[in-house]
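Q: Predict the bound structure with PMV.
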Amino acid sequence: MTDGPIPAHGLPVVARAPGKCILFGEHAVVRGQPEILLAIDVYTQVAIRSSPEWALNGHAEPVAAHRYLQEAIRQLWPGAAPLNVTAVSRIPKGSGMGSSAAFVAGLSAAMGAANGGIDRATLAQQSFAIERNAQGVGSPGDTSAAAAGGYLTLNTEVGAVGEPLWTVESARERWVVRRIADPGWVWVVAYSGLPKDTGPKVRAVGERFSSPEGPELLRRFAEVANAGLRAMARDDGPDTGRLLEENQELLRQVGVSHPRLEALLEAARPSALGAKVTGAGGGGSIVALPKPGQETDLVRRLARAGAVPFAVGPAPRGVELI
Ligand code: PMV
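A: Predicted complex:
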């Protein structure tokens, strides 16, 4: 079931949006290939209130340099009175856990409420446009997860399971976003502490996808993601874990792993059915599917290996006013 629209609300407005974790298909999704991800129960809260001048967390200086805020003002708040925007987040920045998408979806919901309310499909489209313009590249996966909550797929094979939520378009691509059932699993996301930079990574991988080997790589990414969806739908943890490993092999081939991330994948192995980099890579986080009953062991192993591990489940709802 989809949550309803964001209702109209006068200033001040406070919205809360979840982060995300990509299970299958990051990078290839930018070229319109399938992706599976979930909104996770770690949130960013964004408040807007009237202010004599524009401010971010009470300070005027950071406003001009904040690409996401600037893009949101340009698209959603043109010519309107200045605001003090306050953001409080439990999602580590640059971790691959969707901090920027949650900020953008929270801000879009707050501005949308102050502008008379907004339906969720429009919010998803606007949040994607803001993130994409600020970042220069990308897919609507992260922003759709922040908008919708739960488990989602983008462009999975025709006739795939799931309730269609909305379609998001860019000049080059079109993505059909669907909600799929929650398999009821706990995932462990472990932040390496190495920041990652999504734009340059997406551009570098894009060059690989444009090379002669690109079509075959994209086909294999798609095949693994569609197989992952089928494995999850039949509640098959071991097969899902094996497919996470196959996805990781493709991510290695397109150059987004890192020795530090490989060390975390190695540390996870004894307690995981499978693990991979999640998000843009080159830094950021890994995601692992724990062996049944070994969730705590897995978290301990990853902490011992120097990561910041989180046991996460799906955020049941997308962005909402609080
Ligand atoms: O690392 P993150 O959270 O920015 O995720 C990026 C996911 C990519 O597929 C690499 C890009 C995208 O916009 O889908």
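A: The pocket of PMV is lined by residues 26-27, 29-30, 96, 98, 138-139, 141-142, 196, 198, 202, 279-280, 284 (CB under 6 Å).
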